[in-house]
Write a structure and sequence with these properties.
10 strands; binds xanthosine-5'-monophosphate; alpha/beta; 17% strand; TIM Barrel; 10 helices; eight-stranded parallel barrel; globular
Length: 259
């Protein structure tokens, strides 16, 4: 098991939480001092919820205005101080040298795991990213079935393998997550049937991360009953008037289901 997964599990036990915070705050670009205000708000939200979450996921909303080795560094230090693993959600989706370059930057900057798209394949796609992650105790999480309605157009397609077997794309990706040694798979909470099917394939050996709770319509109860390991939650927490309470409430709701 990677160091990333060990840290995540340790944090899940310590904070009794299965909630990964998606810290996707944004402010209008033209606003005066928007970068300072954005960083201040992000650090405040994180400090409020730090005891109720198991990790933090960062997306373009913070990376682009704040910069990886610039403003984001104080947030990365905060997360590390709270003992929270950090996930870089930039859905790596390119050829090898670009995926490798990006991952190296995320890992060097202090991220513990990256999310990648298995559509790009192994050879010349994700092989070196997995190799680099393994060497440094970092994690690679694969998209297996996304949470938005159009996900069925890609992840839900039927595909024919070389031996003529017909299966769904997400089934192939769940199998690849096993054979490639992924540290997690992403399956939308909006698709509890998919969570269940992927759970059957990965056999509880690979954690299932489910975004789509709340604003996107996914329900905690259905997702966790189907096999979700960690909920990824953004707007329902950081747009709430009381992010600490919102995170604590979702944590408790999950704990009621999994106890
Ligand atoms: P909300 O505000 O909807 O935020 O709770 C969800 C977060 O998760 C990201 N997201 C996904 N990430 N696969 C992913 O890897 C998905 O299917 C997916 N759906 C949503 C979204 O960008 C936000 O950070």
């Amino acid at each position: 098991m990677s160091l990333f997964r060990e840290r995540l599990e340790k944090c899940a036990r310590k904070n009794e939480s299965r909630v990964v915070l998606a810290l996707d705050l944004s402010l209008p670009v033209g606003e005066k001092d928007f970068k300072k205000k954005l960083l201040k708000k992000a650090r405040w939200v994180l400090s409020e919820v730090s005891e109720h979450v198991v990790g933090v996921k960062v997306n373009f909303q913070l990376l682009l205005p704040l910069g990886l080795f610039d403003g984001l560094q104080s947030l990365i230090r905060d997360a590390s101080g709270y003992g929270l693993p950090l996930i870089a959600d930039f859905k790596l989706n390119d050829v090898e040298h670009t995926n490798e370059w990006a991952s190296r930057h995320f890992f060097d900057a202090g991220f513990d795991a990256v999310i990648a798209n298995p559509f790009v394949g192994w050879k010349g796609g994700l092989e070196t990213v997995f190799g680099m992650a393994k060497k440094s105790g970092k994690g690679v999480i694969l998209l297996v079935y996304m949470s938005h309605p159009g996900a069925n157009e890609g992840y839900g397609q039927r595909v024919v393998s070389e031996d003529g077997t017909i299966s769904f794309q997400y089934e192939v990706f769940a199998e690849r997550a096993k054979s490639w040694g992924a540290d997690g798979v992403v399956v939308g909470a909006t698709q509890p049937k998919m969570v269940e099917r992927v759970y059957r394939i990965v056999g509880g050996k690979i954690p299932i991360f489910s975004p789509g709770i709340g604003v996107q319509g996914g329900a905690v109860s259905e997702a966790f009953k189907a096999g979700t390991t960690y909920a990824i939650v953004g707007r329902s927490i950081y747009e709430s008037e009381d992010p600490r309470k919102a995170a604590a409430d979702i944590k408790e709701e999950i704990n009621e289901i999994i106890k």
